[in-house]
Amino acid sequence: MNKSKSYDAIIIGAGIIGTATSLGLARKGWRVLNIDSLPASGYGSTSGSCAIIRPYYSTIDGSAIAYESHFYWKDWENFIDAKDERGLIRYNDCGSLVIKTKQNNYLKNILKIMDELNVPYEHYDADQIVARLPIMNKQSYGPVKSADDADFGMDNGKEIVGGVFFSHGGYINDPQLATHNMQIAAEKNGSKFLFNKSVTAIHRQHNQVTGVSLDDGQLLQAEVVLNAAGPHSYKINQLAGVVEGMNIGTRALRHEVAHVPSPTGYDYENEGCIFSDSDVGAYMRPEQGNFFLIGSEDPPCDKRQWVDPDNFDHNFTEQWRTQVMRAGQRISSLAIPSTTKGVVELYDVTDDWIPIYDKSDLPGYYMAIGTSGNQFKNAPIVGEMMADLISASESGQNHDQEPLSFHLKHIDRTVSLGFYSRLREVNQASSFSVLG
Ligand SMILES: Cc1cc2nc3c(=O)[nH]c(=O)nc-3n(C[C@H](O)[C@H](O)[C@H](O)COP(=O)(O)OP(=O)(O)OC[C@H]3O[C@@H](n4cnc5c(N)ncnc54)[C@H](O)[C@@H]3O)c2cc1C
Predict the structure, then answer these.
(1) Domain 3-86+174-249+352-420 sits in CATH 3.50.50.60
(2) Peptide bond just before 143 cis, omega within 30 deg
(3) pLDDT (tens digit, 9 = 90+) per residue, 246-273?
(4) How close is the Cα of 44 to the center of ligand 1, in Å?
């Protein structure tokens, strides 16, 4: 065996999830190699992330981890504990305002969860929303319609009832840089990164993973291999031959995010906050250069675009304009620019929009996948959880029978990683959307 080509663990993918796990394992003393087809870390779907940090999910475990993540991002410099010549990311913790709608049950279920977790929040009535964000109007437009619907853009004669402001949240200015920061920290602890190489085979011997082959013919050995391949996760699971042993699947969903200038005279970049509005089916956040970044909340009238991650349309479509027009219902002064700007990227979506952070039926093969458009924020914690899960499993713990627990130190709460099991039943408490 060529010793220079043998590692304690190989991670397929150097997105935010694979890189965070590299850091988690390296801090435990593991010799880790991340392999990525792309030229640098965080260049895959992570680069297109809106990088919004917010505590509210539909489940208590999902919310607990998301709330905890706020404190990791706030303490980023200490968490990274390494010098990145490109500098560190900036966490703009401007908070987030969510509109109460019939679709989200006026936030009643979510607020019960927030109360249990002691997450601070404030109720706003419609006038307070306009006072906080003076470019918004109070009309209600729901249910969300397609742009070709004759009633598109017409309000329904009512006003929105109000919203809830969550002070603990905001966004990270550069998701790719966040990944690079983690790469530098992982390298400081001994991790290696190999770019522009694709994993083409996963090897096993006597029912144990033994390593991977690359597209240049190299064979790399490790008794632990992690699938952190983002939207390609199902392809990697097929290579590993583990799909039969899973109750939850993953697939790639195409998404467009529009970047449009803020209306003249309004400083959304400095005065705005995250805005989640299921009454118009869009979410928005401030972007550098005083832009609005507008994503879709996947309203039922939009057909979901499941795609092959190696073959999909990277161009903007009519969906881009639809999202801007939906935001324009709430912000009457928002202009539709003639040139399209923004992001076309993929979510790696599970059957219930909750990730899979788990082992597999193949000893030594693990997965941190199915991040469903909502796990950027959690990556620093996922890295530590996966490192614990892998170490414990490799030391003999049967995680399927005795699920590992993880303590969220900032909010002092323990979660069971069984929540993320590949063997779970579809979680009916999920929103089955990017909201998680
Ligand atoms: C448009 C958009 C908006 C989002 N907004 C938010 C948000 O506001 N807040 C939030 O918390 N989350 C958000 N997310 C979700 C979040 O960004 C993702 O959950 C996260 O970035 C996924 O990271 P990853 O490392 O799993 O995947 P990726 O970043 O895609 O990394 C996977 C890597 O694996 C590599 N790879 C794949 N196959 C192979 C192979 N065979 N060999 C070698 N390498 C391989 C790829 O090149 C890629 O770099 C958003 C996602 C998108 C797409």
Answers:
(1) yes
(2) yes
(3) 999 999 999 999 999 999 999 999 999 9
(4) 6
Distance 144 CA to ligand 1 centre (A): 28
Output Rg (C-alpha) for the chain, integer angstroms: 22
Structure tokens given for 21 = 């796990």
pLDDT tens-digit readout, 318-339: 999 999 999 999 999 999 999 9
Q: Ligand 1: which of 45, 91, 275, 323 to mutate, judged by most atoms within 8 Å of the beta carbon?
A: 45
Identify the residue whose C-alpha is closest to ligand 1 atom 41.
199
Q: Which of 11, 17, 23, 46 to mutate to test the pocket of ligand 1 (most atoms within 8 A of CB)?
A: 46
Which residues sit with their C-beta closer than 6 Å to ligand 1?
12-18, 35-38, 43-46, 48-52, 198-199, 228-232, 255, 257, 343, 345-347, 371, 373-377
Q: How remote is the CA of residue 183 from the centroid of ligand 1, in Å?
A: 15
CATH 3.30.9.10 holds for 96-167+252-349? yes
Identify the H or E element spanning 274: strand 274-277
Q: How confident is the model at residue 435 (pLDDT cuts 50, 70, 90)?
A: confident
The predicted model gives 89-109 an average pLDDT of 97
Q: CATH 3.30.9.10 in the chain: give the residue spans.
A: 96-167+252-349
Contacts (Cβ under 8 Å, ≥6 apart) of 422: 245, 246, 247, 248, 356, 358, 360, 367
Query: What does the pLDDT look like over 136-173, one tens digit per residue?
Result: 999 999 999 999 999 999 999 999 999 999 999 999 99
Residue 48 CA to ligand 1 centre (angstroms):
8
Q: Tokens for 270?
A: 């400095």
281: tokens are 């089916």
Domain with CATH 3.50.50.60 in the chain: 3-86+174-249+352-420
Rounded CA gap, 359 and 393, in Å?
Answer: 8
pLDDT, one tens digit per residue, over 345-400 is: 999 999 999 999 999 999 999 999 999 999 999 999 999 999 999 999 999 999 99
pLDDT of residue 431: 87
Q: What is the pLDDT of residue 436?
A: 86
CA neighbor of 61 nearest in space, from 370, 413, 398: 413
